[in-house]
Amino acid sequence: MRHRFSFLLAAALALGVQGACTPTPPLPAGRYNGIELKPAKPKHDFILADTEGRPFAFRQATDGQVTLLFFGYTACPDICPVHMANIAAVLDRLSPGERARVKVVFVSTDPDRDSADRLRTWLSHFDSSFIGVRGPIADVNRIEQEFGLAASFNDAESAADTAYGVGHAGQVLAFTPDDSLRVMYPFGTRQQDWAKDLPRLIAFGAP
């Protein structure tokens, strides 16, 4: 019941984020509703473990595809479930061909509590294709910083504290098919923003 309430709350928050924000003005053709990086940055490689315990090599596994990368944790009360719910809702509206060209990778910033089973189950509430990966927090922090994000941290008061929160970046990193980090989407990005931008990201570089 507690998990069901959490996901119902996440869905409500996702709808609230869409409705409560002031509409953004239309952007010129070729622009994005997130923060466009100029110049774009490289897709740094990293290897962590997926939820089956297999090595997950980021660049190889996502080569040539639109990739949405996010760092978060399953006990997150707001940012993580809202981002995942909004992205999943918009992916459901894409054509099968478009959908096949997008991968979502979720890196756990709480490996002590986010077991492989817990991470897999949590992500499946949004979309069973979402890829969860995990590894030592020192490795995760290094990867975050390589992408220009602040290193995540927990606020546990002692080793016995299991009800802690985790501070982490709120941006979704979007890579275009040329394997470049091109756009960052902050918390508050609405479904309508994703609906406009995902086809643009998919079509990037097409003649």
Describe the structure.
The structure is a single chain. This protein has 207 residues and is α+β, with helices and mostly antiparallel strands. It has a single domain, classed as Glutaredoxin. Helix content is 35%, strand content 23%. The chain contains 7 helices and 10 strands. An 8-stranded mixed beta sheet has the order 1-10-9-4-5-6-2-3, with helices on both faces. Strands 7-8 form a two-stranded antiparallel sheet. A hairpin with a 4-residue loop joins strand 2 and strand 3. Helix 1 packs across helix 3 and helix 3 crosses helix 7. The chain is globular and about 50 Å long.
How big a fraction of the residues is strand? 15-25%
Low-confidence stretches: 1-30
CATH topology descriptor: Glutaredoxin
| Major β-sheet annotation | 8 strands, mixed
What's the overall geometry? globular
Helices and strands, in order, run as HEEEHEHHEHEHEEEEH
Mean pLDDT: 86
